[in-house]
């Protein structure tokens, strides 16, 4: 049985649990406060802090884990990234007060004090720039540090940038981009028997992620316009054409389309004389 470490709270936890449930791996808890749950008969979930998941996976306490790429980088632990889940998108940025003359990282003077909850990444970034800095470690409310005289610069996670603007800070540069990732213990990846179970989980999650970006579209189209319909509705390997019980003038075309192109696809099909168009979500999609 593979053990999978999942975040125990926050948006990352909610999205991870939803993804696993849609993939057929619903967490079954023995009680409301349980920190362990079954994910079907073959997998077990343990719920820990997202920041601790790289440690659990690297040490073998968990075989797989879901956490942010920023936390994996900060941990410095050797794990294998097996899947980018796409959600939890943010960036680790360098920011300064709005009235600061600093415009580029190279403008930051040696000896500057930098407030951050990512000391490892921050040290490495400025070491590569050849700038000696002092770290002011904080665990939260990093944006207030420059206004209290605690630090000259901050390195913090940014999503939309609104928190920086509210606190009169200006972004200078991005150190790294982060999303939620599935990471694996390297021994598990190298073990043929356990790697098979790992691939089962990854394949199930991928099928859900792939489906979320697609829609299934069905339409009755004139048989005489089939060649043009194939250009509009290519699907994965071309549209599926089904006979309609009429005089033979119509066929039903079924295909998979990009979710963000549905309205354009419908407009083009209508222009070809299509009728009875139906669009539906896809739960899972395998290539």
Automatic annotation (TrEMBL):
| Swiss-Prot/TrEMBL keywords | Amino-acid biosynthesis, ATP-binding, Cytoplasm, Glycosyltransferase, Histidine biosynthesis, Magnesium, Metal-binding, Nucleotide-binding, Transferase
One GO term in the molecular function aspect is: ATP phosphoribosyltransferase activity
The protein's job, in short, is:
Catalyzes the condensation of ATP and 5-phosphoribose 1-diphosphate to form N'-(5'-phosphoribosyl)-ATP (PR-ATP). Has a crucial role in the pathway because the rate of histidine biosynthesis seems to be controlled primarily by regulation of HisG enzymatic activity.
Asked whether the keyword ATP-binding is assigned, the reply is: yes
Q: Which family does it belong to?
A: Belongs to the ATP phosphoribosyltransferase family. Short subfamily. Belongs to the ATP phosphoribosyltransferase family. Long subfamily.
Name the major location: cytoplasm
Domain Histidine biosynthesis HisG C-terminal: from-to ranges? 211-284
Q: What's the source species for this entry? A: Gaopeijia maritima
Gene name linked to the record: hisG
Q: Where in the cell is it found?
A: Cytoplasm
Taking every annotated instance into account, which residue ranges of this chain make up the domain ATP phosphoribosyltransferase catalytic? 49-206
User: Which pathway is recorded for this entry?
Assistant: Amino-acid biosynthesis; L-histidine biosynthesis; L-histidine from 5-phospho-alpha-D-ribose 1-diphosphate: step 1/9
Q: What is its EC number?
A: 2.4.2.17
Q: Which reaction does it catalyse?
A: 1-(5-phospho-beta-D-ribosyl)-ATP + diphosphate = 5-phospho-alpha-D-ribose 1-diphosphate + ATP
Which cofactors must be present for this protein to function? Mg(2+)
Do you know which NCBIfam families this protein is assigned to? hisG, HisG_C-term
- Keyword Glycosyltransferase (UniProt): yes
Upper lineage ranks?
Bacteria, Pseudomonadati, Gemmatimonadota, Longimicrobiia, Gaopeijiales
What does the activity regulation annotation say? Feedback inhibited by histidine.
Q: How does it assemble?
A: Heteromultimer composed of HisG and HisZ subunits.
Name of the protein in question: ATP phosphoribosyltransferase
């Amino acid at each position: 049985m593979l053990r999978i470490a999942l975040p125990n709270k926050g948006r990352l936890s909610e999205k991870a649990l939803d993804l696993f449930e849609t993939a057929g791996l619903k967490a079954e808890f023995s009680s409301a406060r349980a920190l362990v749950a079954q994910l079907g008969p073959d997998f077990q979930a343990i719920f820990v802090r997202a920041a601790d998941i790289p440690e659990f996976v690297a040490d073998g306490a968990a075989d797989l884990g879901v956490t942010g790429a920023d936390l994996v980088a900060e941990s410095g632990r050797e794990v294998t990234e097996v899947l980018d889940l796409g959600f939890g998108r943010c960036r680790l940025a360098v920011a300064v007060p709005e009235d600061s003359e600093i415009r580029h990282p190279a403008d930051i003077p040696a000896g500057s004090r930098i407030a951050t909850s990512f000391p490892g990444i921050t040290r490495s970034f400025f070491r590569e720039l050849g700038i000696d800095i002092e770290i002011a470690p904080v665990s939260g409310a990093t944006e207030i540090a420059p206004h209290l005289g605690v630090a000259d610069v901050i390195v913090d996670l940014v999503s939309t940038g609104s928190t920086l603007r509210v606190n009169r800070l200006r972004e200078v540069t991005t150190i790294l981009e982060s999303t939620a990732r599935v990471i694996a213990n390297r021994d598990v990846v190298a073990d043929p028997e356990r790697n098979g179970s790992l691939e089962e989980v990854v394949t199930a999650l991928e099928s859900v992620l792939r489906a979320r970006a697609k829609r299934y579209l069905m339409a009755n189209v004139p048989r005489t316009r089939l060649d043009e319909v194939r250009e509009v509705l290519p699907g994965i390997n071309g549209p599926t054409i089904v006979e309609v019980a009429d005089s033979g003038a119509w066929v039903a075309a079924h295909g998979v389309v990009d979710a963000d192109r549905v309205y354009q696809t419908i407009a083009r099909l209508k222009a070809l004389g299509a009728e009875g168009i139906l669009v539906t979500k896809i739960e899972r999609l395998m290539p």
